[in-house]
TrEMBL record:
Domain of life of the source: Bacteria
Protein name as it appears in the record: GGDEF/EAL domain-containing protein
Entire protein: shown range: 447 to 724 of 724
All copies of domain EAL, residue ranges: 24-272
Length: 278
């Protein structure tokens, strides 16, 4: 900025902050509008490969925001904003609705959705999820809810009670980004879940030092009877190592990138015969 070069650094900093704040407020307004109109934000679906069944067996719904002026905005940007301005519940409901409509079209497939800790910790969350499934006539055992580790879990709080209600109804719970959060072996002892998803950062370095860590996670998970997904698998070498170590599911660009509704329905319909046949 040639214009600002002569000013003192505080003025430059202030100007920059103003710009950031303006941009942020605009994003908030746009996000409200995007959720009200119910277009713009929709689910994409990343196929999950089952090493057990040697085929595609499920998928993960991932939020996409197609901003009218800015193009696609990443969930890592807009999810935290939705949480801060209280719109995460609407966003979660829209994602579940999209996911249900795909499950209705693909009755042989299961689906994972991501839930914010704020959703999971809120009164009535299990009822909202279960009544949405009932509305679509979808068996709760076909749904998995991914949660990231937070200090709120593994105790006696609302989140844990909600997890219990959902699991009693047949919904599975997975810990996302496993290994990067607050899990300790003592917390894992208390936490009743169905699956861990080993974070991509460990998968990236499986050939470069993190293999013993992954082995420890897998041993712990197997001892507790949990299923194990490897996240962010990008190479054949990673896939072979992770299957040999005991991961039952693989997800990553090697298998597929997240796909739009039509593409994922075509994919799963086309590969239907391979699914669940060992
Ligand atoms: P996540 O749930 O851990 O999802 C995995 C992320 O890794 C996705 O990014 C996916 O596109 C990306 N990914 C998958 N395989 C690969 C790979 O092989 N290489 C690379 N480089 N990336 C891969 P995405 O879609 O940008 O989502 C980021 C995060 O945003 C998600 O992480 C999740 O925590 C959050 N998120 C997405 N959708 C929702 C949602 O509907 N609700 C909530 N609460 N959070 C969501
Ligand atoms: Mg996830
Ligand atoms: Mg993850
Ligand atoms: Mg993540």
């Amino acid at each position: 900025h040639a214009k600002a070069a002569g000013r003192n650094t505080f003025a430059i900093f202030g100007e920059h902050m103003d710009e950031l704040l303006r941009r942020r407020r605009k994003l908030e307004q746009d996000l409200r509008l995007a959720l009200e109109t119910r277009s713009q934000i929709e689910a994409f679906y990343q196929p999950v490969y089952s090493a057990e069944h040697h085929g595609l067996s499920s998928m993960e719904a991932l939020a996409r925001w197609k901003h009218p002026e800015e193009g696609f905005i990443a969930p890592d940007i807009f999810i935290p904003i939705a949480e801060e301005i209280g719109l995460i519940h609407e966003l979660g409901a829209k994602m579940l609705e999209d996911a249900c409509s795909v499950m209705a079209d693909l009755p042989f497939i299961s689906m994972a959705i991501n839930a914010s800790a704020l959703e999971l910790g809120s009164d009535g969350y299990p009822l909202r999820v279960l009544s949405r499934l009932a509305k679509w006539n979808i068996d709760p055992t076909r749904l998995e809810i991914e949660i990231t580790e937070s200090l709120g879990f593994g105790g006696e709080g609302r989140s844990d009670r909600n997890i219990t209600i959902l699991r009693n109804a047949g919904v599975s719970i997975a810990i996302d980004d496993f290994g990067t959060g607050y899990s300790s072996f003592s917390r894992m002892q208390k936490l009743a879940v169905d699956r861990i998803k080993i974070d991509k950062s460990f998968i990236d370095t499986v050939e470069g030092g993190s293999k013993p860590l992954i082995e420890a996670m897998i041993n712990m998970a197997q001892a507790k009877g949990l299923k194990i997904t490897a996240e962010g698998v990008e190479t054949d070498e990673q896939r072979d190592t992770l299957v040999a170590l005991g991961c039952d599911s693989l997800q990553g660009f090697l298998i597929s990138r997240p796909l739009g509704r039509a593409a994922v329905i075509d994919l799963y319909n086309g590969t239907k015969k391979q699914i669940f046949t060992a």
